[in-house]
Amino acid sequence: MSIDRKWIALALTLMLALAIGCKKDAPQVAPPPAVEPTTTDTTERVEAAPAPGPSTDTQQPQRPATLQLWEQELRRQGLIGDVFYAFDRYDLSAESKQRLAKNAEFLNSSEGQGVMVTIEGHCDERGTNEYNLALGQRRGQAALDYLASLGVDSSRFKTVSYGEERPFCTQSDEACWAQNRRAAFVITAAPGY
Amino acid sequence: MRRILLCLSITLVLAVPGVAQDPPAGTQPDVTITLADGNARQLRLAVPDAGLDNTASASLRVAAGDFDQTLRDDLDFAGPFRVQGPDELGVLTLTGNQGHDFEQYRSLGNDIVVLGRIFEEGDRFVLEGYVYDLPSGQSVFGKRYRGSMDQARRIAHTFADAIVEALTGEPGIALSALAFHSDRDGFQELYLMDYDGRNQRRITGHKSTSGFPNWSGTSDAIAYVSYFTEQPGVYYVKLPGGEKVPIHTSGNLNISPSISSDGQWVAFGHADAVNTDIFVCQREACSAPQQITKASGIDTNPAWSPDGSQIAFTSDRSGRPNVYVMERDGSNVRRISFDGNYNDGAAWHPEGTLIAYASRRGNRFQITVTDAVTLETRTLTSGPHSYEEPTWSPNGRYLAFSEKRGRSSQIWVIDSDGGAPRQLTFEGNNAAPDWSAGAL
């Protein structure tokens, strides 16, 4: 539509509106839909709705199966046992300290030389998910700090908090919650693997 | 007054064909009819099924049915309307004569009638929608919408939002979306859904643990946490394409990102060792984020105020987790949660000073709202389960949250006064909803 025609349309419509539409006693009987509806093509908006390609996202690498098997064996022998915490706490009990001392012994042994460990901090489900991410960090770090105090080289450790996102036990009772409030030892690298 | 303003609005819509989606600045707010709250009567809308030609194809009939239902649901959910559909309108004798039919709609107490005509143009779905003020018989507006056949619901949302805006002066929310995380496909990944729970789709594929989405106020980015490098990092999904962009990934812990309303800034929880603090940086330049909390306890889960001047967050400096508010530079910290023994998950109302959060009473969390200025507090839920992670709808009329029953979790939405709960998710476990500020 040219500018001239647009202005004419505007003027005519204004006149029309003033003459009919806004009269005090507009007729109760509505005119037929004299309005030619204005064109609004939503196609572009419809097709712009996000259709992201999740398949191209970077994925988490998997550890070698042989390393996972060896780790299971070490855990079975009680050489890299988990440490457990009280509800909403991250301080270490006497039992936890004994447990960590045993883990330190293995890591400082000839078999444990060169083993790299991630200490995972976990929480039960009763707190909020987001706060538990910070609480799990404290749990993992408390275990790491104690190991370091026992003379294990702290550069062999990383900590990662999973909060309540990766529970070990999925029942909703205290026995299960107690298992989920833990620091778990995961071997990320070792000589020969 | 109202009629005169409606006339003005019609005039302008008529005069500028092709540009009707955004009426000229200054005209729209004038049409406002205050109905929302208090004792004001709800505006009554007659919304019969849109007209279809006898020759309409089967696929068009299906799409039209979807359109009709979606439009009525949208208008019903919008709040200030009472909607009558074919069930209620079925008692009327309609002749096709507009004057006669309008009288019929009025006889059931309706103030407005929403009429539509649906037809095909090639393989496109076309709607001509008309909204009439019944007492005067005047057109409020008429618009034409076109899209692919599978977008009938989206066209209904678009038309519904236009109706809401024309009748109330307030933008509709039918085109808003919620981001959330779900384990339905095996791994915890990010998902989107329409505001009514429909059209749920996965948007990440890290095959790790990913979640805790937070929308930019500009609706072009969703920040989130992912463990795919094995350490939790904060990233964002760029929309519409879906590219994943790192925000901050170094250190031991990067969690709970919150993007400011203008989309420029990110606040998040970060720890290099034992203690988590809140850091702030620019979304596109976050190599050296600024630490803004320095207390000895945990400070985490930040949330920007809508104007970007303040940040609400959770701290255990009192001995238990509680919600605090500070200036964006970390100064002037004050506690705002005093009920319950564990408070987390602050979400600012899109306009005011209200902050919603999860407050533990006994063993369960309840959705609670506190005015950050007056500290006046209201608890909205009282159910038998745990209600957490609240998020406000863009117009502040609704809250979505996650309901936890033991380890299972689903997303619900309620009115901001706590009423009318509706479940939005059903498949797998779903949590951490975050409602977009605008249309997606």
Describe the structure.
- The complex is a heterodimer of chains A (193) and B (440).
- Chain A is α+β, with helices and mostly antiparallel strands and 193 residues long.
- Helices cover 41% and strands 15% of the residues of chain A.
- Chain A contains six helices and five strands; from the N terminus they run αβααβαβαβαβ.
- A four-stranded mixed beta sheet of chain A has the order 2-5-3-4.
- The longest helix of chain A has 21 residues.
- About 18% of the residues of chain A have low confidence.
- Chain B has 440 residues and is mainly beta.
- In chain B, 15% of the residues lie in helices and 41% in strands.
- Chain B contains five helices and 30 strands.
- In chain B, strands 1, 2, 3, 4, 5 and 6 form a six-stranded mixed beta sheet that branches. A four-stranded antiparallel beta sheet of chain B has the order 9-8-7-30, with no helix packed on it.
- The two termini of chain B are 34 Å apart.
- In chain B, 52% of the residues are buried.
- Classes of the chains: A alpha+beta (193), B mainly beta (440).
- The interface between A and B is large, with 71 and 96 residues.
Share of β-strand residues of chain B: 35-45%
- Poorly predicted runs of chain B are 1-39
Number of E strands of chain A: 5
Radius of gyration of chain A: 33 Å
Alpha-carbon distance between the termini of chain B? Answer: 34 Å
User: Count of DSSP helices of chain B?
Assistant: 5
Strands of the largest sheet of chain A, in order across it?
A: 2-5-3-4
The largest sheet of chain A is:
4 strands, mixed
Helical segment count of chain A: 6
